[in-house]
Write a structure and sequence with these properties.
globular, TIM Barrel, 12 strands, alpha/beta, single chain, 7-stranded parallel β-sheet, 3-stranded mixed β-sheet
């Protein structure tokens, strides 16, 4: 699908960001009060609104051209959204997700019926963000359809095979994407941690031992994404953020993009890729050689969101220069490698450090792309 020049010029921006921000203390307290029955849902929403107004202003002040609501209304980056489809319900499993050295809070998804789009409560979340954006671009992040495939517990009889599920997921996503577009969304980010399973030799081996063919599953995941965005209007820019996990400054897995480079860099119909490159867990830039499109942007996640220390700007510039050996500089951008709070728990840095990181991205990008 050919994209308009106007869209390509506007986003992704040279200095961009993944979207989630640390939850302000006031909001954390209000959420706790709501859970304890001390305030109403409407009172909580009012506090969310007020904190999002402040957050959008802070993003603009930091020099960002795309603004998000920081996912301040969400507890998790993916579960909350996926529960908005018919046929999907949240539940409390026996265990949380296993990250490096830590287990998450217990939260899961059950697929109890066919997955359908029948309106979605987060459309209102986007409308509120759009009303605040002004001259900035209102960017909205949603989880990939693949997250339901990998995270959902499917009740017996809901789906006969993976292909049938992907058909329904794609249709549901087409519905919600069109609804967001109708409300003015022109910059959509799809977040996907499922690809990281294929980067890890250990995880691939585990899939094979469980009777799954990694290559077939990866192709199925690419189909789920591509069909979900197949009908998007020409002026809707769609990027994908690929991550190896982000929970309280820990990660879930490691591995180079090489194992899946053909699909990620040559088989996804997105306009841009936000890629983790903040440490050795992501491997080298060499897999970027597989990019064969001059209209695919790569947003280099060279600034870590996991810790507060600022990276040496000259080292970051040197890494951008290194990446430009594989992808032309005009197709590169810069961002933190992930959000600052993929869940409401947040990463281990202060709000002041968070904004220093954002300004660091903006300052370096202004130097590199003068």
């Amino acid at each position: 699908m050919t994209k308009s020049v106007h869209t390509q010029v506007r986003a992704p921006f040279r200095a961009d960001h993944v979207g989630s921000f640390l939850r302000p203390e006031r909001l954390k307290q209000a959420r706790s009060q709501k859970e304890n029955g001390e305030i109403t849902a409407e009172q909580l929403r009012q506090i969310e609104d007020e904190e999002i107004v402040k957050l959008v202003e802070k993003q603009k002040e930091a020099g960002l051209q795309a603004v998000t609501d920081g996912e301040l209304r969400r507890s998790w980056w993916h579960f909350d959204f996926l529960e908005g489809f018919d046929g999907v319900e949240g539940y409390t499993p026996e265990k949380g997700l296993q990250f490096t050295g830590v287990e998450t809070r217990k939260r899961g998804l059950k697929v109890t019926d066919k997955v359908r789009f029948n309106g979605h409560y987060m459309i209102e979340h986007f409308k509120f963000l759009k009303s605040l954006a002004g001259d900035a671009v209102a960017k909205f992040a949603i989880p990939s359809p693949n997250m339901l495939y990998f995270r959902g517990e499917f009740e017996e009889g809901t789906y006969q095979n993976d292909e049938e599920l992907v058909d329904d997921l794609a249709a549901a996503y087409q519905g919600v994407i069109q609804a967001l577009y109708d409300e003015g969304c022109r910059y959509l980010q799809i977040d996907d941690t499922s690809w990281a399973i294929f980067f890890s030799e250990e995880r691939r081996k585990s899939m094979i031992e469980n009777g799954k063919d990694p290559e077939k599953i990866a192709a199925l995941c690419a189909r789920a994404v591509n069909e979900s965005i197949a009908n998007r209007p020409d002026d809707l820019l769609v990027t994908m953020h690929i991550c190896r996990g982000n929970y309280k400054s820990t990660y879930m897995t490691s591995g180079s993009y090489e194992a899946l480079s053909d699909i990620i860099f040559g088989g996804l119909d997105v306009d841009g890729l936000f890629l983790e490159f903040d440490d050795e867990r992501s491997g080298s830039f060499e897999p970027l050689r597989k990019i064969n499109r001059n209209d695919l942007y790569v947003v280099l996640g060279l600034i870590t969101s996991k810790f507060g220390e600022l990276e040496d700007p000259e080292e970051v510039k040197a890494r951008i220069d290194e990446a430009s050996k594989y992808v032309p500089l005009e197709q590169l951008c810069l961002s933190p490698q992930c959000g600052f709070a993929s869940t409401e728990d947040g990463n281990k840095l202060t709000e002041e450090q968070q904004w220093q990181k954002v300004r660091h991205v903006v300052d370096i990008a202004e130097d590199v792309w003068k």
